[in-house]
Amino acid sequence: MIRTYVGEGVFTDDPLDTFGTRAVVQVDGLQRLLKYVCKNGFEHHVAMNASHTADVLSEAFDTYFDWETHVHE
After folding, report:
1. What are phi and psi of 35, to 5 degrees?
2. What percent of the chain has pLDDT over 90?
3. Nearest residue to 48 via CA among 18, 67, 14, 23
4. Domain range summary for the chain, segments of one domain joined by +
5. Is it the case that residue 61 has pLDDT exceeding 80?
6. DSSP letter for each residue of 18-34
7. Separation of alpha carbons 26 and 10, rounded Å
8. What is the signed CA dihedral for 7, 8, 14, 15, rounded to 10 degrees?
9. Out of 41, 43, 45, 54, which could bridge 6 as a Cys pair, Cβ 3.0 to 4.6 Å?
10. What is the spatial distance between Cα 14 and Cα 38, in angstroms, rounded to a whole number?
C-alpha cells in the first residue's frame, strides 16, 4: 500500500547554519501535520518545491495511481 500526504507552505529567508540540502519553511498548522505524520507511520523524508501543487498532486495520486492521500489544509 502506498499512502501519501501533501500540503503547502512557503520558503523563508531565515538563516540556517547546517550542511547538505536544507530549507526553512512556514507551514500553517505544522503541529497538526506532524501529529498526523507520526500517528500514521510516515517516514521523515519529504520532497519540496517552490510551486503550489498540492491540489494537482492529490488529484493525480487519487485518479491515476489510486493512492490514499491526506491533504493538509
Report:
1. -60, -45
2. 67
3. 23
4. 3-71
5. yes
6. --SS---EE-TTHHHHH
7. 5
8. 50
9. 54
10. 26
